[in-house]
UniProtKB/TrEMBL annotation:
InterPro entries: AlaDH/PNT_N, AlaDH/PNT_NAD(H)-bd, NAD(P)-bd_dom_sf. It comes from Variovorax beijingensis. The keyword Transcription regulation does not apply. The transhydrogenation between NADH and NADP is coupled to respiration and ATP hydrolysis and functions as a proton pump across the membrane. This is proton-translocating NAD(P)(+) transhydrogenase. Keywords: NAD, NADP, Nucleotide-binding, Oxidoreductase, Translocase. PANTHER family: NAD(P) TRANSHYDROGENASE (PTHR10160), PROTON-TRANSLOCATING NAD(P)(+) TRANSHYDROGENASE (PTHR10160:SF19).
Length: 376
């Protein structure tokens, strides 16, 4: 099969959908891989490295003109126009963007959005949300450490003792767990909150403390279980109690990393302006949910601004929306392996396309085919 890999064009997107490692495997399976010149450069992969792995170097028209196009982000209008009907496109195509999916369907593309894969054991190796959220959690802590004017670890020096940083993590999915692990390695004291009580053990196993909030009604207990591993919106009564507990910790915190998300909905508000006002000057918030708040404003904190770092009430608030792109080489390496593993489900050993809708991963990821939006 002819496989095209265009350079990503979205502002700030540094990742690329294949690496020399995955190109080599695709070429060994008999595919022809055409990579757009410069596609890997922001992820430190040269055209020469792709060529050495067996790829041909092409331009945008050549990459989008392939039978199958491997992308990181959903194609723009101009990019969609470069693909012929029937082209298979695979990437993070944003399954909650109905207008975007319609555009792909209208262009006659067969599209697979990898974010829609189920959170099952079999899907783990192609789980792009996990591979990228893991990187986001790590980088959030690195950025916080950089912005923070003090040490993370407790230090006893001849010039006196320095206290360990207090870190609060809000939302303990993949990103939150990696943020806890990373902050712990730096020597911080960590507390964390999530709506799902099942994360308590995971937090404690990483050396953090779970912020306990009671579940008082059947409705609260049921919502806390979530669905498919994801959180569901919690009743207002529980959120009010959570806010009281979180506010106490945030007032004492030096760093807050917030990662709370509910698929297909606005990110919950967990750090109000009053809570920011109560924080110590010089504290840092990294809001991984920035840009995903109600109506796209704010994130878990309404004061965060997408893709900006702002100082409000003496607190530095980082609203970087694409943290994995700041770790471009490893983010691309892991993403490219996710893509390669997904291809094994839809391409036969002989190199032919075979879309088996009996396969739950294939069916969940397929978002457009034959002119129709097919999102489940
Ligand atoms: P996510 O990015 O959708 O959300 C991040 C976290 O925010 C979640 O833990 C969620 O519970 C939490 N959250 C939502 N509302 C909140 C609120 N009001 N207050 C505090 N926290 C709130 O989640 P994710 O990282 O994609 O992970 C979701 C789940 O899927 C996790 O349990 C993860 O371990 C699981 N998972 C399973 C597999 C697998 O089995 N293959 C793979 C990856 C992830």
């Amino acid at each position: 099969m002819l496989i095209g890999v265009p350079a990503e064009t979205m502002a700030g997107e540094t990742r690329v959908a294949v690496t020399p490692e995955t190109v080599k495997k695709l070429a060994a399976s008999g595919h022809t891989v055409r990579v757009q010149s410069g596609a890997g450069i922001a992820a430190s992969v040269t055209d020469a490295a792709y060529q050495a792995a067996g790829a041909e170097i092409t331009d945008a028209t050549g990459a989008f003109g392939a039978d199958m196009v491997l992308k990181v982000r959903t194609p723009t209008d101009a990019e969609t126009a470069l693909m012929k009907p029937g082209t298979v496109v695979i990437g993070m195509l944003n399954p909650f963007d109905a207008a975007g999916l319609q555009r792909l369907a209208t262009a006659g593309l067969t599209a697979f959005a990898l974010e829609a894969a189920p959170r099952t054991t079999r899907a783990q190796s192609m789980d792009v949300l996990s591979s990228q959220a893991n990187i986001a959690g790590y980088k959030a802590v690195m950025i916080a450490a950089d912005k923070y004017q003090r040490f993370f670890p407790m230090l006893m020096t001849a010039a006196g003792t320095v206290k360990a940083a207090r870190v609060v993590i809000l939302g303990v999915g993949v990103a939150g767990l990696q943020a806890i692990a990373t902050a712990k390695r730096l020597g911080a004291v960590i507390e964390a909150s999530d709506v799902r009580p099942s994360v308590k053990e995971q937090i404690e196993s990483l050396g953090g403390k779970f912020i306990e909030v009671s579940y008082d009604t059947d409705e609260e207990k049921e919502a806390a279980v979530g669905v498919g591993g994801y959180a569901r919106p919690m009743p207002a009564s529980w959120l009010a109690r959570q806010q009281v507990e979180v506010a106490k910790r945030v007032a004492l915190a030096d760093i807050v990393i917030s990662t709370a998300l509910i698929p297909g909905r606005a990110a919950p508000t967990l750090i109000t302006e009053d809570m920011v006002k109560a924080m110590k000057p010089g504290s840092v918030i990294v809001d991984i949910a920035a840009g995903k708040g109600p109506d796209g404003v704010g994130g878990n904190c309404p004061l965060s601004e997408a893709d900006k770092t702002v100082v409000k009430h003496g607190v530095t608030i980082v609203g970087e929306t694409n943290l994995p792109a700041l770790v471009a080489a490893d983010a691309s390496a892991l993403y490219a392996r996710n893509v390669l593993d997904f291809l094994k489900l839809i391409v036969t050993k002989e190199g032919a396309l075979k879309i088996d809708l009996e396969d739950d991963i294939v069916a969940a990821c397929r978002v457009a085919q034959d002119g129709q939006v097919t999102k489940q």
